[in-house]
């Protein structure tokens, strides 16, 4: 399952983050803001528990999130989405997966992971701005499941049909939330029109 979040506020910010003239400071701010909106949508079915809250007037029957949430940014670019999701769920635990795409083969290379024990049994939310061939996302999902994760959501800023198909075929139980399903991949396996190299644009390394 996937959902393209078409809310005007998301689409407006998406236009700004795609712009080649958006510098890394603004790019980071937009990545944070878009992530908040995407995660707001992605968390719409999260479990709640009933709580009683004493207001200055009376007791209110309220609800609070009842899930152990583990956020997993894929290094490096996923770090650019971390502030956005922690703004929504500040008590979430954070695990890290380090993966880069080999420049020649375009295949994912996993070089690091450090996950909290709550990965097992918790709700895992993978954040990575780009889901291109889908190789990095599938490798992340394989790793999370090998570490006991059962309920996983992926949140990305831009994706394309090829990447979504790869993730769906490998992990049909995982829902993907995105701001854009773009046209295609180019010969260098970059998303077209996309937004370029997300890691370089976030961290000013290009
Ligand atoms: C980017 C991006 C994803 C991956 C997507 O990372 O952040 O992790 O590419 O491509 P795929 O779907 O074809 O696997 P990159 O390899 O540039 O590493 P970086 O974040 O360290 O710059
Ligand atoms: N990684 C990126 O940062 N951008 C793409 O378009 C594809 C992979």
**Average of per-residue pLDDT values:** 97
Shape type: globular
The string of secondary-structure elements, in order, is EHHEEEHEEEEEHEHEEEH
- This entry's quaternary arrangement is single chain
| CATH hierarchy: architecture | 3-Layer(aba) Sandwich
| CATH structural fold name | Rossmann fold
Report how far the terminal alpha carbons are from each other: 34 Å
Strand content: 25-35%
Number of strands: 13
How many helices? The count is 6
Unreliably modeled segments? none
**Radius of gyration based on Cα positions:** 17 Å
Topology:
Blueprint: E1 2-4, H1 8-18, H2 24-42, E2 48-54, E3 59-65, E4 69-75, H3 82-88, E5 93-94, E6 96-101, E7 108-114, E8 123-127, E9 130-131, H4 135-146, E10 151-159, H5 161-170, E11 175-181, E12 184-185, E13 191-192, H6 198-203
Parallel strand pairs: 1-11, 4-5, 4-6, 4-8, 8-10, 9-10, 10-11
Antiparallel strand pairs: 2-3, 6-7, 12-13
Helix pairs in contact: 1-2, 2-3
This protein binds 1-O-pyrophosphono-5-O-phosphono-alpha-D-ribofuranose and uracil.
The site of uracil (URA) has 8 residues, from helix 6.
């Amino acid at each position: 399952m996937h959902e393209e979040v078409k809310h005007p506020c998301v689409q407006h910010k998406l236009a700004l983050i795609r712009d080649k003239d958006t510098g890394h400071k603004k790019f980071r701010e937009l990545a944070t803001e878009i992530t908040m909106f995407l995660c707001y949508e992605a968390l719409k079915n999260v479990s709640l528990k009933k709580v009683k809250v004493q207001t200055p007037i009376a007791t209110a029957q309220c609800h609070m999130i009842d899930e152990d949430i583990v956020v997993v940014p894929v290094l490096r670019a996923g770090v650019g989405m971390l502030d956005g999701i922690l703004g929504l769920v500040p008590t979430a635990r954070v695990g890290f997966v380090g993966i880069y795409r080999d420049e020649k083969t375009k295949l994912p290379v996993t070089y690091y992971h450090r996950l909290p024990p709550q990965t097992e049994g918790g709700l895992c939310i993978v954040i990575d701005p780009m889901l291109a061939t889908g190789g990095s996302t599938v490798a992340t999902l394989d790793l999370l499941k090998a570490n006991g994760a059962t309920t996983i959501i992926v949140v990305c800023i831009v994706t394309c049909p090829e990447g979504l198909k790869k993730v769906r075929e490998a992990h049909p139980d995982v829902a993907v939330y995105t701001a854009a399903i773009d046209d295609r991949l180019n010969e260098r396996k970059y998303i077209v029109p996309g937004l370029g190299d997300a890691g370089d644009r976030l961290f000013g390394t290009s």
